[in-house]
Amino acid sequence: DAGITQSPRHKVTETGTPVTLRCHQTENHRYMYWYRQDPGHGLRLIHYSYGVKDTDKGEVSDGYSVSRSKTEDFLLTLESATSSQTSVYFCAISEIDDSKAFFGQGTRLTVV
Amino acid sequence: AQTVTQSQPEMSVQEAETVTLSCTYDTSESNYYLFWYKQPPSRQMILVIRQEAYKQQNATENRFSVNFQKAAKSFSLKISDSQLGDTAMYFCAFMNRDDKIIFGKGTRLHILP
Q: CB B100 to CB A100 under 8 A?
């Protein structure tokens, strides 16, 4: 199994509070992704990174920011959490010329 | 923008039967990758099979095979001799040259004993 760890695995937070989810990889893969999974929507791309300090927006990036200061870590921040951001969040990694993604275990975030 | 469409939200088949899950996609690119991922109740995302668009031969992994029709932009998954452990959500996905991976909404598959 690819070495990807998401933390925390579960979190309950209050509306308006900042939240940071962490994705850590030990595979030295170049690409990292954040997705959210909601019933009826599948997995939707929030942000992705193609290298240290190189990131780009996905289809549902509003309300989210990311940072990647090291190859192994990709952070997803909700600056001010809202109930619509209650979801399961997945991190994934891939490498050039390998062209397949490996996923973390997911983080269930509940905003109350 | 690329899109991936799975037209079957839910399916049920008897154990040992063969089942086909449909997927269509839209892209203007000629070189890309297609995937099927399985998500069992454990929530883990598991890569089932991968197809490279420039390869005409359909990918096969044990009981799993695909029917890749590039001109029709169709990428269906066939599961032969289905097993109870195949019960899961299945996602079709597309990777473009920018390495963005786009997913369909999924098909929930139930294998009945």
A: no
* Record: contact B47-A100, CB cut-off 8 A: yes
Give the 3-state secondary structure of residue A65: strand
CA-CA distance, B40 to A87, in Å (whole number)? Answer: 17
DSSP bridge pairs for A38? A42
Contact yes or no for B27/B74 (Cβ under 8 A): no
Ramachandran assignment for A71, one of left (phi > 0), alpha (psi -120 to 50 degrees), beta (any other): alpha
> Who's near B1: CB < 8 A, 6+ residues apart?
none
Inter-chain contact B95–A99, Cβ cutoff 8 Å? yes
> pLDDT tens digit string along A1-56?
569 999 999 999 999 999 999 999 999 999 999 999 998 889 999 999 999 999 99
Identify residues of A whose CB sits under 8 angstroms from chain B CBs: 31, 33, 35, 40-45, 48, 50, 58, 88, 90, 92, 94, 96, 99-103, 105-106
Radius of gyration of chain B (CA): 14
